[in-house]
Amino acid sequence: MEAGPRDREPTAPGTPEALPGLSPDGPEEETVTPEVEVELRPQRRMRIWQLAPIVALAAMGSLMFAFPLAFGTGDGGAVVAMLGLLISCCAAGWGMTAARRVGHTWPGLPSRSSGERPDWRVIALYVTVATALVALAVWRVARLR
């Protein structure tokens, strides 16, 4: 005769037979799912409405700076070139400000919230490169006259 439901031993809900995928040694390897880290905050990205005016001003300023230098147009060439340089520098400053607001930093410098001090050699390198670029630009515009 077959055993009915009353003839079997009851299994407690916490026993390994009641929970699939568990053995007396712990969970079986096939059933373990890897943990996934999920960022709860959305990523801070620069939006198109932030980038469009910066890119437009940078393009306009660089063209104003490049054409008088390349083609040497008349008496107003130096003035137009300096105005183009000024507009390009303003666009670069706005771009750096927008990038900093979304959390980007210059290469080699620590992030804003890290509490670390920036390395003086990296800052000296940035200042040297910027000074050289400005000096070359001013020298080139001065040669137009």
Pick out its properties.
mainly alpha; elongated; 145 residues; two-stranded antiparallel sheet
Q: What do these coordinates show?
A:
The chain is mostly helical and 145 residues long. Helix content is 51%, strand content 3%. A two-stranded antiparallel sheet has the order 1-2. It is elongated, with a radius of gyration of 33 Å.
What's the SSE blueprint?
Blueprint (H helix, E strand, L loop, with lengths): L21 E2 L2 E2 L20 H24 L5 H25 L18 H25 L1
Antiparallel strand pairs: 1-2
Helix pairs in contact: 1-2, 2-3
Can you give me a brief rundown of this structure?
With 145 residues, this protein is mainly alpha-helical. Helix content is 51%, strand content 3%. The protein has helices spanning 48-71, 77-101, 120-144; strands at 22-23, 26-27.
Mean pLDDT: 76
What spatial order of strands do you see in the largest sheet? Answer: 1-2
Largest sheet: 2 strands, antiparallel
Q: Could you state the order of secondary-structure elements as H and E?
A: EEHHH
Count of individual helical segments: 3
Strand content is: under 5%
What percentage of residues falls in helices of 4 or more residues?
40-55%
